[in-house]
Specification:
- It is a single chain.
- With about 450 residues, this protein is of the alpha+beta class.
- The strands form four sheets. Strands 2-1-12-11-10-9-8-7 form an eight-stranded antiparallel beta sheet, sandwiched between helices.
- Helix 2 packs across helix 5 and helix 2 packs across helix 6.
- It is globular, with a radius of gyration of 25 Å.
- The chain starts with 5 loop residues before the first helix and ends in a 21-residue tail after the last strand.
C-alpha cells in the first residue's frame, strides 16, 4: 500500500474517529484509492472485541444493485437484449411490462420503491413469482415521464430477468461472471466469518440492538450482498474503468452517464444505468450508497482523478454522507495529485498533424488536437461550447465519443491535392477561416464587409 505523509494520515484518521465517536458507530472502516492502489485505510470501533480489518465482511445493501446492473449490461453487450426492449419481452405479466429495461436500470420506470407486504429488509423474502404477482396497478407511481423514482422492486425484477436469460439463479451468475473473474472471493450472498453483526444504536442511550439479517429472496438483487473493504476496493477500480474481461470500459463509462436526476437542472445527484452519480466541488462521482438494517456502506469513484473512497459500518443509522466527500477533500488538500511528467510520444500518427489547429464553426473559433490515445479533441477555443472527442474509423471518418457530438460522424473534406479544407460534422461545416468562401458552407458565403 502506498504510504501517505504522517500528517495526511492523522488528518484522515481524525475525521474517521470523529465520525465514529460522535455518531456512536459500533465499528467503521474507511479508505482511499488512487491510481488503482489503496493508499490509506483505517478503522475505529470493534467487531467481536477487536478492530475490523480489510477482510471483515459487512452487508453493503444497495451497492448490490451495481452488480446486477453489470450483469444486465453484459447481456446487452452480447446482443441478448436491448435497453429499449420492454420488460414484457423477458418477464411478462407485471404492470410495468411496457417500461424499458433502461428505464428500470435508471429508476425512471415509475415503479414503487418497496414491495408489497411486510418491511422487506427485516423479513424473509419470497419467491420471484410471489414478487412479480404483487407488481400490479397499485405498484405504479404517478411520476412525470422520465422522472426519477428510486425502486428497490425494479432491481428485484432485473435479478429475475438475469436468471431467466441465463437459465440459472442470479447469484450463481454473479459468482461466475463477475466475482470469480475479478478475484472478489469475500463477496457473498450470506455472511461468512469474519463478519460484523448489524446493530441499531439507541438514540438516547449507549446501548445497541441486534438487527436481523434475513435472506431477502427475490428482493436479494436490491441489497443482499456482504463484502469486505478489500473487495469493495476492487469494485471501485471496476467502476472507474479497470474492468478486466468482465465488461468493456466503454460500457462502464456509459453506465456512468446520467439517465435520471432528482433535483432539477442544476443537479448534484442522479442515476445512470445502475450507478448513483454525484457532482461535488467539480468532481463527477459514480458509485453507490448502501443501507440495510444494521449496516451502512458507500463506494464513490472519481474516474477523472482515478480516485475512490469507501466506508463500511455496522449501524442502521448515524454515518453522515459527508464522511466520504470529506475524506476526498482531505486527500486533495494534504496530498493533491502530482501530474505525471510530460514526455513526447513515438506512436503519434504524424499524418494527423495536418488536421490540428484552429477551425471555425461559422465565426466561432475551435481547436482540434491529437490526444495521447490517438483520439481527436474538438473544443471551443475559449469559453464553453460543444466539445467532443473522436475515434478513428477504418473508412477515414471519425465517430464522436462524448458531448454534443456523441455518436455523430466527422468527415474530413479535402481539395484535389488532398489538403484538408473543411470538416463536415453531421452537416455542420468547420472551416480554416471564418465562413471560408471556398468551403461548402450551406447557404453560401457572400463575403465579409464593414457594417453600414
Amino acid at each position: 500500500m502506498t504510504s501517505l505523509l504522517p500528517s495526511t494520515q492523522r488528518a484522515l484518521l481524525r475525521r474517521l474517529a470523529v465520525e465514529q465517536s460522535e455518531n456512536r458507530v459500533p465499528s467503521l472502516i474507511a479508505g482511499l484509492i488512487r491510481d488503482g492502489e489503496t493508499i490509506w485505510v483505517d478503522t475505529r470501533g470493534q467487531v467481536g472485541g477487536r478492530p475490523s480489518t480489510t477482510d471483515t465482511q459487512y452487508r453493503v445493501g444497495s451497492i448490490t444493485k451495481t452488480f446486477v446492473a453489470v450483469l444486465v449490461m453484459r447481456l446487452r453487450d452480447e446482443g441478448r437484449l436491448d435497453l429499449a426492449d420492454k420488460l414484457d419481452e423477458y418477464v411478462p405479466g407485471t404492470s410495468i411490462g411496457k417500461q424499458s429495461i433502461g428505464q428500470i436500470l435508471s429508476h425512471s420506470s415509475g415503479l414503487t420503491a418497496e414491495p408489497a407486504g411486510q418491511w422487506w429488509e427485516r423479513t424473509p423474502g419470497g419467491s420471484a413469482d410471489e414478487l412479480l404477482s404483487t407488481i400490479d396497478e397499485h405498484a405504479r407511481r404517478p411520476t412525470p415521464r422520465h422522472g426519477f423514482h428510486y425502486s428497490n422492486v425494479g432491481f428485484g425484477v432485473l435479478g429475475e430477468l438475469v436468471s431467466r436469460l441465463r437459465g440459472a439463479p442470479w447469484g450463481e451468475v454473479l459468482q461466475r461472471e463477475i466475482l470469480e473473474p475479478l478475484g472478489m472471493k469475500r463477496t457473498t450472498l450470506s455472511p461468512v466469518a469474519p463478519h460484523a453483526e448489524g446493530f441499531a444504536v439507541h438514540p438516547w442511550a449507549d446501548v445497541v440492538l441486534p438487527e436481523p439479517a434475513e435472506d431477502a429472496g427475490a428482493m436479494a438483487p436490491a441489497g443482499q450482498l456482504w463484502s469486505t473493504f478489500e473487495d469493495m476496493a476492487s469494485w471501485a477500480r471496476f467502476v472507474s474503468g479497470d474492468t478486466g474481461e468482465v465488461l468493456h470500459p466503454a460500457t462502464v463509462a456509459e453506465m456512468r452517464l446520467p439517465g435520471s436526476v432528482d433535483d432539477g437542472p442544476e443537479w448534484r445527484g442522479g442515476y445512470g444505468l445502475g450507478l448513483q452519480l454525484m457532482r461535488y466541488r467539480g468532481r463527477r462521482l459514480a458509485g453507490h450508497t448502501g443501507s440495510m438494517p444494521g449496516f451502512l456502506a458507500t463506494v464513490w469513484t472519481d474516474p477523472a482523478e482515478a480516485t475512490g473512497v469507501i466506508f463500511m459500518a455496522n449501524t442502521t443509522a448515524g454515518v453522515t454522507g459527508a464522511l466520504a466527500t470529506d475524506l476526498l477533500d482531505l486527500l486533495a488538500e494534504h496530498e493533491p495529485r502530482i501530474p505525471a511528467a510530460w514526455e513526447p510520444r513515438g506512436d503519434v500518427d504524424l499524418q494527423l498533424l495536418e488536421l490540428t489547429g484552429q477551425w471555425y464553426w461559422g465565426p466561432t473559433p475551435y481547436a482540434l488536437r491529437v490526444l495521447r490515445d490517438g483520439l481527436l479533441d474538438l473544443s471551443p477555443w475559449q469559453g464553453r461550447g460543444r466539445a467532443s472527442r473522436f475515434r478513428a474509423n477504418p473508412d477515414g471518418t471519425w465517430t464522436g465519443l462524448d458531448g454534443y457530438y456523441a455518436g455523430e460522424i466527422l468527415r474530413v473534406g479535402r481539395d484535389e491535392s488532398g489538403v484538408p479544407t473543411h470538416l463536415d460534422l453531421n452537416t455542420f461545416i468547420f472551416t480554416r477561416t471564418p465562413y471560408d468562401s471556398d468551403a461548402p458552407v450551406p447557404g453560401g458565403v457572400a463575403g465579409w464587409r464593414p457594417a453600414r
